[in-house]
Structures are given as structure tokens and as C-alpha cells.
Amino acid sequence: MSVHSKLYEGKAKILYTTDNPEVLLADFKDDATAFNAQKRGSILDKGRINCSISSQLFKKLEANGIRTHFIDSPAPNQMRVKAVKILPLEVVIRNIAAGSLSQQTGLPVGTVLKQPLVEFYYKNDQLGDPLLTSDRLLLLELATAEQVDVIKNLALQINEFLRRFWQQCGITLVDFKLEFGLDSQQQILLADEISPDTCRLWDTAETDPNRRVMDKDRFRRDLGNVEDAYQEVLQRVLQTVDTQN
User: Fold this and answer.
1) Any idea what the Cα angle at residue 129 is, between residues 128 and 133, rounded to 5°?
2) Are 82 and 92 in contact (CB under 8 A)?
3) Residues 174 and 102: beta-carbon distance below 8 Å
4) What is the pLDDT of residues 1-18, one digit of tens each?
5) pLDDT digit string (tens) for 166-193?
6) H or E element, residue 141
């Protein structure tokens, strides 16, 4: 596979075209951002760690019937993916109150939700990625009603699988973000990544509200030991995968 030109550079990845128009190469970066890129920094080996975690989880999801854009990982920080048209939606699934949900509703951080909450946000940095109502989503024609139903069902299936997987890692899945895209046949595929950048992860055995954090909140909130937390998540994922195999 030969790599051609840079197609797109985002906050966490660079996408390159290849000699196959249906295949792209994603290069995961060590750059770290928070608060819509108002806070910037770097996390040592983040690209390699997030690519490795995402690759393992995509393979597991594929094996459980969830279609993703993942093809393979030719290098530790690179992923070959199917070319998709990303829908301008960030799909957030919440199992426990934290972050903006607590800030906007007054629910105490750590409140276990009676059922998973699926939220849609407009993927638009200039507007600050606002929370969408279903009517606004359809008004803006960001997706069709049928696509929204499919995505919500997929999100709940993915959440059910990931909750169990992270639990086996000794990690609590608080909430996480997903992105979806359309392939050349207009089929909806899970895209982007699943990593400590996109998931809020707590060490199940730890009760201290700061020490339990194993995700990008350590960077957002200046908690320190960011690299160690990411590396620990990767090691637990690899150990769990090895055990399952």
C-alpha cells in the first residue's frame, strides 16, 4: 500500500489517501486538546496507545457483529480504515453522571443512571459542538430519521459490549463519544476511535475521585500522570484480550 497526499488533519489524527480510493491511512498524533482546542498540549506515546486500544476494540466489535471502518494496523500509531463520509454528529452515551451532564443538570458526579442516555451533539467547532434536540438535528439535515434510529440502536449495542469489556479490565465506563460514517454503499459504519481520549474511564478499585481517573480528564483537569494512566489502560486492554483469546 502506497500513501499519497494528506486528506485531512484533525486534533488527534491525520488522514492520508492511498492507492485504493476505498482505503485511507489514519496516523494517530500525540497532540492533546481539550475544551474545543482552547487547551493544547502533548501526551507522550498517545498516538501509539490510542491506536492500539482502538484497534483491539474495533476487532472485538467486528467479531460481535458491529460494522466498523477498521481494516488493520500496519504500524503502532497507524490504522488502515475504510473511506467513509463522516456524519457531523458526536454521539455520546452516558452510564454515570459526570462532565457536562452533571454541570447542566445538577446530578451529582457518580450518579448511576437508571438506563444509558444517548445524546447527539453537532460536530461543529465554531459553534462549540452544541447539544441537539431531535427536531434540530432533522432541521439541519445532519442525518435522516432512519439513520438516527440506526445510530442510536448501534450506540446502545456498542455500549453494552464495551461496558462488559471494560469491566473485565477493572475499569468503569462512565461515558464515551462515538462517530459514524457512510461507506460507498451508504451503509453506516462505526468510525473515528475508541480510546482514553473519547471515553471517560474510572479505575473500578479506586474510590478517590481524582486517582480513579484513567482518561483525558487527567489532562483537562491537570491531575498529572496522564501518560501513566493511558499506558495502564492499554496494558489492561491487552491483558484482557490475551485472556479472552
Assistant:
1) 125
2) no
3) no
4) 566 799 999 999 999 999
5) 999 999 999 999 999 999 999 999 999 9
6) none
- Looking at this protein, which amino acid is placed at residue 115? Q
Q: What pLDDT score does 1 carry? A: 58
The answer on pLDDT for 39 being more than 90 is no
The residue type of 27 is D
Joined together, the cell numbers standing for residue 234 give: 492499554
Q: At what angle do helices 46-63 and 226-244 cross, to 10 degrees?
A: 30
CA atoms within 13 A of residue 160's CA, in its CB half-sphere: 10
DSSP reduced 3-state for 117: strand
Say yes or no to pLDDT of 26 above 80: yes
Supply the DSSP symbol for 109: T
Residue type, 8: Y
Look at the block and give the residue holding cell 496522564.
226
How far apart are alpha carbons 80 and 23 in whole angstroms?
7
What is the pLDDT at residue 33?
86
pTM of the predicted protein model: 0.95
CA 183 to chain centre: 19
212 forms beta bridges with none
d(CA 178, CA 164): 17
The DSSP string of 7-59 is EEE-SSEEEEEESSTTEEEEEE--EEEETTTTEEEE-TTHHHHHHHHHHHHHH
Cα separation, 230 vs 107, whole angstroms: 27
CA distance 149 to 16: 31
